[in-house]
User: Which sequence fits this backbone?
């Protein structure tokens, strides 16, 4: 594994990093109330009396959120705690109606787990999961609508969150970036979180410290809140680590503090010093009973688990013969993998993968389309590969057919039929073209016979051209050779 | 016709069923008496027009035979219960003019059974207090006065308005809530009957929270049977409260009048400390003698951790309260006092909105939960709570029921200096009641007699969890033998 070491004139430094990721749980209603969780409603449309912190209102636990978190835990190879409990985290803010967040503190729903990440040098690394607990989201404060007043939107208040806490296992920005991509992939596969960092449904807090390379020291760490893209997380780690090194090398000390990452400059700045850190006064939530799960329940969730990206990737490599790179790219996104599996069903998967990774993705990129909006369906892509395999069309003609498919969305068989693109495999017809080409080019025939055998390619080209591309190149090759060498 | 407002709830039901009088007449009688006794400050909001409308509906049901369990019973509702469309303030300035758009489960259950609502009853602010003196609306006044004095006495607290209103026949019955004695102590001081059921028996949904792990709703009424009729309706599992118990609710009235012969009554020695008021001590002995005479077996028991109960209670309850009251921040409803920026608005609103005792408890609660103190206070208090619960479990291996005094003293004057100067003296009023909340058990006050200077005194029957039935059984026996004369 390639090491990430910050080397200066004064020495070498190692980065220590851990992540805390808040994932919005996909559920019909909020964590502790019946209000809807649909994104994009008008402000304060999806707010129940519970969410608004009205007097006398009580939370009730949403079973669907628990189910989703258990599923996620299983997807991260983690231990599901049969006993977990809720706590209140107390702080005042205008978008926190109750004045406390109901979360899990001492007894999280999910315990230790692990995730394997693939690194660019071809190696893999295991990242430890410390815990996953479930909690409620806060509302949103909007400060830029009015010079004097702030506005509060409670649609998000009470939406279920899973907070996934990793062990401080990251030693490079790349590891953290790959982990986030893998995590996003897994939760999307499971359908437990949509993983959209730009919409805020997946938010990342980054903890960074550094230490002299080769030591086991644990130095003061800084936390950067709400870094909202994979790229920014990697940038934040890189720049924050550099800042620590500069401070230490100039004889200074790092203060434990919460910092804010500025996506414009890529730098971090102080948000809250330790002296001003909240005292959250956690205590057991008296309104909710501890959550006790049975083995039967956990088993029933296990039965619902789908094939996850790592397993799928291994299967693609071992059983379908894909390259590790292709397999990784295709498996990263469940929609792509599903598309691939339909297209590859009963066919040469490797050939389908080549089309998918090449022309197909290029086409989507060029047309600025998402996979779900592709004009070419998985079935049609598969059929195109069939047409080539069955020698109905050549690979070259297939490229033209593909372009028409992309423009019209038509079935490739129909295109081939309509445009008369069927490959000529009738040796009689091909022989006639060959004879005509040879007859009309006596000079080149003489040169060939005189030893310039590389003219074979030129003859092949002429024949295919004459056939308007429909002659099967293999047959042309074979027949030409026979005739020329006669 | 006799004064309708003097009848018990069960007598009223009887009369309504027999068409001796109408629900409207009953309501009118109570409204008249409610207005005549405004001096007692029992109600903080009167809703006579609502009561009359509901009474009319009751009359229609009696006429066509679709009358329900409590049809036509005019009740007062403690201002801690959210009542849809009716102002609910918890007697705090911070909830000025708050009108809930929802109904608490307990009041909804009562409304479904046909009651009418006369108004909202006075209480200590957010139920924090033992004398109703912390109410933003001023104290409720005890209908009783000492023989030798004209001084106004406290009604007890926090459900002081409920107890005073029932005692003075300003309602047929009232709802109360009890976190550390708030149903039982005012009932004792005003000479009425009140039960705090087992924690989880009644839903807390829609009841403004004070200390969530201790709060429990219950009835305050004119007789044991009335309380049983009310609890029949108020109790039951509620999906909207995760801590409400999914336990069957028996018809509690069927246990009234049943023989108590052979029942084992525990007498905890720790409840008879040195310096216990002689009158209270004598009252207790009388109660013991009555039960013994009916063939109950008297057993001495020990609840060894009793002496730590008050301390544990005054850590746990404020801790939960400090968090429960965080929502009153001026942002969404109730009082808002503007300030320069969010923090200042919080400070201004909460400084103006909360009274002294509420602020004191928020401070205590915040302190005991804060980093560095949590283990020494909150966690320790939770351990004590477990020990107290275990004390009861052990005791109930030797007895079926426990009999104790309800309050260490009869009603005391409003503005009592020793209590105003030192809140601990006020907290001592809860000494016989808090353990029951910490253990989550049912406890009931039965008025047993008057002190030498004419003030009501009560005894408390403590039962096992979800064994309200036998609490009613024993309470009914004591009620009959004591023959306490209501006002």
Assistant:
């Amino acid at each position: 594994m390639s090491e990430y070491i910050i080397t200066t004139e004064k020495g070498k430094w190692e980065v220590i990093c851990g992540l805390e990721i808040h994932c919005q749980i996909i559920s019909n209603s909020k964590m502790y109330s019946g209000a809807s969780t649909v994104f994009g409603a008008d402000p304060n449309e999806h707010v129940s009396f519970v969410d608004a912190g009205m007097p006398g209102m009580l939370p009730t636990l949403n079973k669907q959120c628990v189910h989703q978190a258990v599923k996620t835990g299983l997807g991260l190879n983690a231990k599901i705690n049969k006993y977990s409990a809720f706590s209140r985290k107390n702080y005042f803010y205008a978008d926190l109606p109750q004045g406390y967040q109901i979360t899990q503190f001492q007894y999280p729903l999910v315990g230790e787990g692990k995730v394997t990440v693939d690194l660019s040098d071809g190696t893999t690394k295991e990242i430890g999961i410390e815990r996953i607990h479930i909690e409620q989201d806060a509302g949103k404060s909007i400060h830029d609508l009015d010079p004097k007043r702030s506005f509060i939107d409670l649609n998000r208040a009470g939406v279920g969150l899973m907070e996934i806490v990793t062990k401080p296992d990251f030693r490079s920005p790349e590891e953290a970036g790959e982990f986030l991509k893998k995590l996003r992939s897994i939760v999307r596969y499971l359908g437990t979180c949509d993983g959209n960092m730009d919409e805020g449904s997946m938010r990342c807090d980054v903890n960074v410290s550094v230490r002299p390379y080769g030591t086991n020291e644990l130095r003061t760490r800084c936390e950067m809140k709400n870094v909202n893209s994979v790229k920014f997380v990697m940038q934040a780690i890189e720049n924050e680590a550099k800042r620590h090194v500069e401070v230490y090398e100039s004889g200074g000390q790092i203060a434990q503090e919460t910092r804010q990452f500025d996506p414009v400059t890529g730098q971090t700045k102080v948000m809250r010093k330790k002296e001003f850190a909240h005292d959250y006064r956690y205590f057991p939530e008296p309104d909710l009973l501890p959550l006790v799960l049975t083995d039967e329940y956990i088993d029933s969730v296990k039965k619902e688990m789908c094939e996850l990206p790592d397993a799928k990737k291994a299967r693609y490599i071992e059983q379908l013969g894909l390259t590790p790179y292709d397999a990784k790219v295709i498996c990263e996104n469940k929609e792509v993998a599903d598309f691939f599996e339909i297209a590859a069903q009963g066919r040469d998967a490797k050939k389908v993968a080549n089309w998918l990774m090449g022309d197909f993705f290029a086409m989507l990129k060029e047309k600025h389309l998402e996979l779900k909006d592709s004009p070419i369906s998985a079935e049609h892509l598969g059929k195109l590969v069939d047409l080539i395999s069955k020698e109905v069309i050549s690979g070259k003609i297939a490229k033209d057919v593909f372009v028409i498919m992309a423009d019209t969305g038509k079935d490739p068989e129909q295109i081939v039929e309509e445009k008369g693109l069927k490959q000529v495999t009738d040796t009689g017809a091909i022989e006639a073209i060959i004879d005509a080409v040879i007859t009309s080019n006596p000079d080149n025939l003489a040169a060939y016979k005189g030893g310039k055998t590389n003219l074979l390619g030129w003859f092949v080209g002429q024949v295919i051209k004459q056939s308007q591309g429909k002659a099967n190149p293999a047959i042309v090759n074979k027949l030409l050779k026979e005739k020329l060498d006669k | 016709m006799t004064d309708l407002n003097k009848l018990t709830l069960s007598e009223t039901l009887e009369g309504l069923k027999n068409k001796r009088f109408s629900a409207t007449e009953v309501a009118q009688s109570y409204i008249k008496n409610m207005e005549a006794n405004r001096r007692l400050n029992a109600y903080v909001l009167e809703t006579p027009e609502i009561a009359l409308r509901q009474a009319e509906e009751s009359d229609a049901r009696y006429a066509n035979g679709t009358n329900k369990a409590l049809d036509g019973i005019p009740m007062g509702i403690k201002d801690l219960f959210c009542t849809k469309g009716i102002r609910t303030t918890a007697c705090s300035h911070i909830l000025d003019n708050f009108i809930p758009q929802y109904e608490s489960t307990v009041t909804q259950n009562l409304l479904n059974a046909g009651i009418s609502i006369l108004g909202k009853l006075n209480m200590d602010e957010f139920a924090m207090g033992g004398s109703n003196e912390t109410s933003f609306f001023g104290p409720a006044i005890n209908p009783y006065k000492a023989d030798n004095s004209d001084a106004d006495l406290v009604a007890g607290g926090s459900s002081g308005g409920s107890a005073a209103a029932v005692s003075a026949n300003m309602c047929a019955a009232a709802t109360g809530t009890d976190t550390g004695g708030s149903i039982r102590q005012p009932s004792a001081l005003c000479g009425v009957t009140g039960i705090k059921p087992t924690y989880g028996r009644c839903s807390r949904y829609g009841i403004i929270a004070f200390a969530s792990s201790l709060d429990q709703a219950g009835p305050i009424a004119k007789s044991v049977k009335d309380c049983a009729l009310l609890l029949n309706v108020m109790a039951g599992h509620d999906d909207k409260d995760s801590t409400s118990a999914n336990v069957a609710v028996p018809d509690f009235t069927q246990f009234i009048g049943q023989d108590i012969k052979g029942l084992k009554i525990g007498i905890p020695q720790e409840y008879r400390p040195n310096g216990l008021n002689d009158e209270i001590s004598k009252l207790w002995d009388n109660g013991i003698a009555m039960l013994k005479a009916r063939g109950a077996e008297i057993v001495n028991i020990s609840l060894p951790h009793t002496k730590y109960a008050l301390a544990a209670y005054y850590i746990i309850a404020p801790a939960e309260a400090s968090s429960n009251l965080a929502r009153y921040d001026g942002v969404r409803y109730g009082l808002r006092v503007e300030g320069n920026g969010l923090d200042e608005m919080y400070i201004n609103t909460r400084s103006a909105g909360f009274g002294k005792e509420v602020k004191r408890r928020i401070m205590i609660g915040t302190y005991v939960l804060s980093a560095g103190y949590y283990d020494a206070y909150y966690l320790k208090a939770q351990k004590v709570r477990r020990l107290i619960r275990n004390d009861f479990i052990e005791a109930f291996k030797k007895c079926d029921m426990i009999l104790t005094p309800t309050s260490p003293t009869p009603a005391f004057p409003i503005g009592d200096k020793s209590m105003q100067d030192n809140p601990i003296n006020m907290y001592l009023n809860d000494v016989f009641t808090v353990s029951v909340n910490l253990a989550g058990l049912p406890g009931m006050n039965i008025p047993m007699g008057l002190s030498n200077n004419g003030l009501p005194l009560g005894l408390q029957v403590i039962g096992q969890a979800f064994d309200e039935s036998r609490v009613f059984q024993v309470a009914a026996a004591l009620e009959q033998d004591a023959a306490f004369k209501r006002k």
